[in-house]
Amino acid sequence: MSYAQFGLVEATDFNTLVGGDPTSTANTLNATWATGSGQAGYGQTAVANVAVGQTVAATSWASLVNNTANAATHQGSSITSVTAPVAGGVVTYLSAIPTNLQTIYSSRRNAATQGSTTANAITTGSTWINQATWTHTATFANVDAARYFFNAGGQLKITCAHSNSTAGINALFNGLASNVGTLVFSGMDSTTTATIAGTSYRGFQKVGGGGNSPSPYVQTAGYFGLSSANTTVFTQTATGSPAGYVNSFITVIAKTDGAAGSNAGNGSVITIYTVWDEVPNGLTVGTGSTVTLTAVPPEQTNIANTWGAVTLAGSVSVT
Predict the structure, then answer these.
(1) Does residue 310 belong to any structural domain of this protein?
(2) Across the strands, what pairs with 155?
(3) What range does the domain containing 45 cover?
(4) Does 111 reside within a domain?
(5) Which of 106, 127, 153 is the last residue of a domain?
(6) At what angle do helices 96-106 and 58-75 cross, to 10 degrees?
């Protein structure tokens, strides 16, 4: 029978609520909380199924109730409060349990807060007259670690700066780097939004900055929206003077190594190229051009760290 008022709670009812592990079944606890599949799953310890014919222990119900509450707090989701049963107590029908599971599944991409950041900043030590190209990588222990990082609200961010603001080509790149703002890679592969640390994000999003409208600007280029081929996700052109150089630009190209793993992931290594191009060539851009890759992990108060360390590396070449 199904979980319902006045019914006898059976193992199959409980198992339907928690789901298997891994599972891609929507609105089950383990799809959001445990391994999940693709764009669902925080990698937390799964709530085990109960063998058919066995009594569903109060501890199992408590795990269902408490982990649902922890997921909701992690997300900032509003759910109906449910008191976890204790050993020897009576497990009663609560319509809030299926509804709460639906809420945490539909809100699974949200995160109320985030953890402490790590960054890799690379600065040019020589002048250039043509192009500067930064190569950054973010490497995870495995594909599922990357999935859990992004599914639980982790992000990668790119920022640019040019410390030399002397009039001419240096002032132009100083302004252009500022106009880029902060470029944020979240998990999504569509224009679906997630609220993370109070800000609404798409898969790839420019935050702050200014200047003209960037084109291309691929908002679906979050972790799950990237491919193993280099994809230009963002280009911002210059404004101001020298007037003959306003076709100069900063562009961002990204890819993953593409491995899907066993649970529909999208790679364990993300590579991001940031290209600053002077158009036409010839004027000398001074030293001090910087591109920074920052990893912002999920919080670790309501969920455990299942994504491990994120290794950041970077280099720059100039011509």
Answers:
(1) yes
(2) 296
(3) 11-106
(4) no
(5) 106
(6) 40
10, 171, 275, 302 from 254: Cα distances, Å = 49, 27, 11, 31
Does 19 fall in a domain? yes
Residue-wise pLDDT tens digits, 30-80: 999 999 999 999 999 999 999 998 888 889 999 999 999 999 999 999 999
Query: Which pTM value belongs to this model?
Result: 0.95
Helix, strand or coil, per DSSP, at residue 206: strand
Q: What is the pLDDT of residues 128-178, one digit of tens each?
A: 999 999 999 999 999 999 999 999 999 999 999 999 999 999 999 999 999
φ, ψ dihedrals at 61, nearest 5°: -60, -40
Query: Which sign, positive or negative, has the C-alpha torsion 297, 300, 303, 308?
Result: positive
Note whether 151 and 282 are same-domain residues.
Answer: yes
Output the pLDDT for position 51: 95
The number of helices, as runs of H, and strands, as runs of E, in the chain is: 6, 12
Half-sphere exposure of 140 (CA within 13 A, CB side): 30
% helix, strand, coil for the chain, step of 5: 20, 25, 50
- Model confidence band, residue 269 (pLDDT cutoffs 50, 70, 90): very high
> Could you say which of 44, 79, 106 is where a domain stops?
106
In the chain, the number of structural domains is 2
**167: Cα within 13 Å, side-chain hemisphere:** 0
**What is the rounded CA–CA span in Å between residue 206 and residue 204?**
7
7 burial via Cβ count (<10 Å: 0-12, 13-18, 19+): exposed
Sequence-separated (6 or more) residues with CB below 8 Å from residue 55: none
φ and ψ of 110, to 5 deg: -80, 155
